[in-house]
Design goal:
CATH superfamily of the largest domain: K homology (KH) domain
Oligomer: single chain
Number of domains: 4
Radius of gyration: 39 Å
Structural class: alpha+beta
Largest sheet: 5 strands, mixed, barrel
Strand content: 15-25%
């Protein structure tokens, strides 16, 4: 029996990585609980592990009395003197209990307590191991699925990859290898809950840190990342060494480094751009492959108005606004993109005056303006069917706009103000800068470029 207990202690310690002292303490507590199960809840018992013999010694202590009233805690003088002839009333006598005497039920209780203690110690070890790994990449295997969530086996620990943290359209099967970012480690619940993410921007950063030695050495720094997981990402980088090109370092020879990250993210396109503290210059890089002709900076409201050639507007905005949306996330500024025609139109006081009409929108005003109805006066004199046809409105809606123009002129005395006195588009808090577009390097899936080629996206 002694050999079995010693083997049990050693096996648990080695298999679970739990200190021997924790297992021994659990065994002792289990034996005490088993003894109380056998002799009563109020029985005074103790259990100690003898490291020399490898045995757990269990003792029961009772008080010597003339007449026994509580068998759980008392022993008669006659019975006590059979154990020790010199014992007196009031003394305490201890008797050793053989483990076999505790019975099967008591042994099961001891085993249950041991299992609970070991599991508790194991949970604590897992928590201590992973609590400082938040923000790092963990690698494991898909163990099972739970209501769309993926349970990942990380060695002896289990982690959860929630549906919200999974890249859309990614599919996994049991046993597949998976890498993800540890974003949270919770202590509550039965087991420490390790939460993973493959959509977090820091996951992209950590992947590049693994692939690019210059980032590990601190020469190249990732300043900002914006992602739409599974579709496209933008990453701004800077180098502390003028001889090291930060974009080229991240792209790698023939695109080898960026392609390794793209493959891990299942084809997510990655634009790598050089960082610049000047938001006007940075937005040039962020909106590539589109070219910008002018940037108006409103530092107070953190807003950028970007003017691009007419044929570059859809390219700058991107499919469903993705390109400008990612650029806005990357900079942390609001970005309004407009074509040169739209910008010049907005500078015309007559166009601004048209926007003051009730029911008028910028889209309708732009259509009318481009077709020659470029002032409130011209709209007031226009034909209903002509306005309806140009702006694609119902006749009733076109008629309402014409009436609004007439009402507006009537309130002004039918005398329009001179153009120089009309409301002009002023931005006292803005700084207008005209920059030469910098062409940032990019990563393309086929090689050294980290950005999509200049294909126009609707």
């Amino acid at each position: 029996m002694a050999g079995e207990i010693r083997k049990l202690v050693e096996a648990f310690s080695k298999e679970k990585g739990i200190p021997r002292e924790v297992i021994i303490e659990a065994l002792e507590e289990g034996m005490r609980a088993a003894a109380r199960k056998k002799f009563g809840a109020r029985a005074i018992v103790d259990a100690q592990y003898n490291d020399e013999t490898g045995e757990i010694e269990v003792y029961r202590f009772r008080k010597v009395v003339e007449k026994v009233e509580d068998p759980e805690t008392e022993i008669s003088l006659e019975e006590a003197r059979q154990l020790d002839p010199n014992v007196q009333v009031g003394d305490e006598v201890g008797t050793r209990i053989e483990i076999q005497e505790l019975g099967r039920i008591a042994a099961q209780l001891a085993k249950q307590i041991l299992t609970q203690k070991v599991r508790g110690a194991e949970r604590e070890l897992i928590y201590q191991e992973y609590k400082d790994r938040v923000g790092q990449i963990a690698s494991g295997f898909v163990h099972r699925f739970d209501r769309g969530n993926i349970i990942v086996q990380l060695g002896r620990a289990e982690a959860i990859l929630p549906t919200s943290e999974q890249i859309p359209n990614e599919r996994y099967h049991r046993g597949d290898r998976i890498r993800a970012l540890i974003i949270e480690v919770n202590r509550s619940g039965r087991d420490p809950q390790i939460v993973l993410s493959r959509t977090h921007p820091d996951f992209l950063k950590r992947l590049f840190e693994l692939e690019v030695p210059e980032i590990q050495e601190g020469i190249v720094k990732i300043v900002a990342v914006a992602r739409e997981p599974g579709s496209r990402a933008k990453m701004a980088v800077v180098s502390s060494d003028p001889d090291v090109d930060p974009v080229g370092a991240c792209v790698g020879l023939k695109g080898s480094r960026v392609q390794a990250v793209v493959q891990e993210l299942r084809g997510e396109k990655i634009d790598i751009i050089p960082w610049n503290p000047d938001p006007a210059r940075l937005v040039y890089n962020a909106l590539a492959p589109a070219e910008c002709t002018r940037v108006i900076v409103d530092e107070e409201n953190k807003t950028l108005e970007v003017i691009v050639p007419d044929d570059q507007l859809s390219l700058a905005i991107g499919k469903q606004g993705q390109n400008v949306r990612l650029a806005s996330k990357l900079l942390g500024w609001r970005i309004d993109v407009m074509s040169e025609t739209q910008y010049m139109r907005r500078q015309d006081p007559n166009f601004q005056e048209m926007l003051n009409l009730e029911g008028m929108t910028e889209e309708i005003a732009a259509k009318l303006y481009d077709k020659g109805i470029n002032s409130v006066e011209a709209l007031a004199q226009a034909d209903v069917e002509q306005v309806a046809d140009i702006a694609r409105l119902k006749n009733s809606e076109a008629e309402a706009l014409i009436e609004a123009a007439k009402k507006y002129l009537a309130e002004k005395g039918a005398q329009p103000e001179p153009a120089e006195e009309s409301a002009s588009l002023e931005e006292p808090e803005s700084v207008e800068r005209e920059e030469t577009a910098e062409e940032p390097e990019s990563a393309e899936e086929e090689g050294a470029e980290a950005r999509e080629s200049g294909e126009s996206e609707a």
